[in-house]
Amino acid sequence: MKIMNLKLHPKSTSKALATNYASLVEVLILMGVGALAIILRAKLRIPINIPGHHGVEVMALIIAGRSLSNFKPASTISTLAASILILFPFMGFKDPFLPAIYITMGLTIDFLFVSFEKFRKNIVFLALLGGVSYMIIPLSRLLINLTTGYPYNSLLKHGIIAKIALHLTFGMFGALLGAGISMPFIRKKQ
Description:
Helix 3 runs antiparallel to helix 4 and helix 4 (98-115) runs antiparallel to helix 5. This protein has helices at residues 13-43, 55-68, 74-86, 98-115, 123-134, 136-148, 153-158, 160-189. It is mainly alpha-helical. The mean pLDDT is 90. The radius of gyration is 20 Å and the shape is globular. It has one domain.
C-alpha cells in the first residue's frame, strides 16, 4: 500500500502570496485614507459656523479611495478606520453615535457604487453619491434625536433643512474633488 506520493505538484503559491500581499496593501491604504479624512476633520476645526463644511475633505478622500479601489467594501473599510479613530478621546469628538453614522455612510457609498456599476466613471454620479452619503449625517442625527432624545444643538441652531442642504452641497463638492483626483488614475488603469 502506497501511503506517500513524493511527486511534487506544481503550485502557484508565489502568485497567491503576491495577490494576498497586494490585497493587504490596498486595505491598509484604504484604512489610511479613512484615518486621514478623520484626522483632517478633527484638526481643521475652523469656527466658520457653517454645518457640513467638513464634507469637502472627508468626501474628497473617501470618494477618491472608493474610485481607485477594486474592493467592493472600499468605503466601508475607510469609514471603519475613521470610526475607530473617532472613538479616541484625544480626537475631540463628543458625538457617541458618530462612528455608527460614518460606517452607515461608507456602507451607503459602497452599496450605490456597486449597484450602479455603469455610472462609476460619471462625475455627476460620483458627486451625487458623495452628497447623498454625506447627507446621512444630519438625517441620522435627526432620527437619533427623535428616537432617543439625544440633544443635538446644531439641529436647533441651524434647522434641519439648512443642515441637510449644506451637507448635500459640501458632500457633492468634496466628491467632485475626489473624482477629479482619481479620474486621471482610473483612465491610466484602462
